[in-house]
Amino acid sequence: MTISPVLKRQRRKVSFSVYLLLTVLGLFYLFPIIWVFLSSFKGYIELFEYPPKFLPKSFYPINYIESFVKGDWVRYFTNTFLVTAVSTLICVVISEMGGYAFAKYNFKGRNFLFILFISTLMLPLEVLMIPIFIVIKKVGMYDSLWGLIIPSAATPFGIFLIRQFYLSIPNEYIDSARIDGAHEWQIFLRIMVPLGKSIMACLAIFSALWRWNDYLWPLLVIRNDNNYTLQLALANFSGQYNIQWQTIIAMMVLSMLPLLIIFLFFQKQIVDGMAMSGLKG
C-alpha cells in the first residue's frame, strides 16, 4: 500500500511540529541549569546586577578553584559518594531478595505482609524521622556516615519495583531449574538475577539520585562538619561577614555534574526498567 504525497507532507508537518514543541519544552526546562552554569563564572558584583545578564561579562574560573580550596569540596564529595554508593548497593541487594521472595514464593501471610510493607509509602517522612532518629542514636550511629547509610538500606519502593518485575517472569523458569536439580540459591543467582539486571540498574539509578540529593536527613543526623555531605556543605557555606555566592554556585554546578552524567548515560535503563516492571498484580 503506497502513501500519497499529500499524506506524506501532512505527516512531515505533524512530525516537525511535534519535534519543534519538544525542543522548545526541552530548552525551557534546561534554562535554569544553563543559567546556573553561566552564573558560576560571574563575579560577585555581576551576580546582583539589574537587569541581570544571561552571559557573563568576564569569565571567572577562579570560582571553581575557590570551591575546592575554601569549600573543601573534595571531602564533601567523598562523603556524599561513600554514602550514595554503599547505601545504593545495600538497597539493591535487599530489594532484589525481598522483591523476588514476594513475587515467587507462596508463604502464609505473603499478601498481607506485602500490603503492610507497601502501606508505609503513604506515611510522610516527618512521621518516620523521630523513631528512626531514636534508633540511630541508640545504636551509636549518630553523627556518622553509617547513620545516613543504614536507614536507606531498604525501601518499600525498591521491593515493590523488583516484585512487579519478577511477577512478569514465567514460573516455568524456576520449575525447569528445580527439575534439573538446582537449589534455590542457584536459581536466584544464576537465573533470576541475570534476568533482573535492567530493573536493578533502574533501582540503583533512582537510589543514587535520592541519596545524592538528600538534605533533610543528613541535617538531623550529622553534627560534625567533617561528615558533611554536599547538600549540607552548600547550605552551611558562608563567611563570617558575607556569603560568597559565586563560590556556592560553582559548588552547585560541581554537585550537579555526577547526576547529569548518570542520567545522560543511563536514561535508557531508567525508561526500560520502569517499562518492564509493569503493574502486574
Account of the 3D structure:
It is a single chain. The protein is mainly alpha-helical and 281 residues long. It has a single domain, classed as MetI-like (MetI-like fold). The chain has 14 helices and no strands. It is flat and about 75 Å long. The two termini are 41 Å apart. The relative contact order is 0.13.
Could you say what the CATH architecture is? Orthogonal Bundle
- CATH superfamily membership: MetI-like
Distance between the termini: 41 Å
Indicate the low-confidence ranges by residue numbers.
Answer: none
CATH topology label: MetI-like fold
Q: Tally the helices.
A: 14
Biggest sheet features: none
Helical amount among residues, as a percent range? over 70%
How many strand elements?
Answer: 0
Shape: flat
The secondary structure category is: mainly alpha
Into how many domains do the coordinates divide? 1
* C-alpha-based Rg, rounded: 24 Å
The average pLDDT value, as a whole number, equals 80
Run of helices and strands: HHHHHHHHHHHHHH
**Share of β-strand residues:** under 5%
Q: According to CATH, what is the class?
A: Mainly Alpha
Give the secondary structure arrangement, pairings included.
Blueprint: H1 5-39, H2 44-47, H3 62-69, H4 73-104, H5 110-118, H6 125-138, H7 146-149, H8 156-167, H9 172-179, H10 184-195, H11 197-213, H12 216-221, H13 230-236, H14 245-277
Quick description:
With 281 residues, the chain is mostly helical. 72% of the residues lie in helices and 0% in strands.
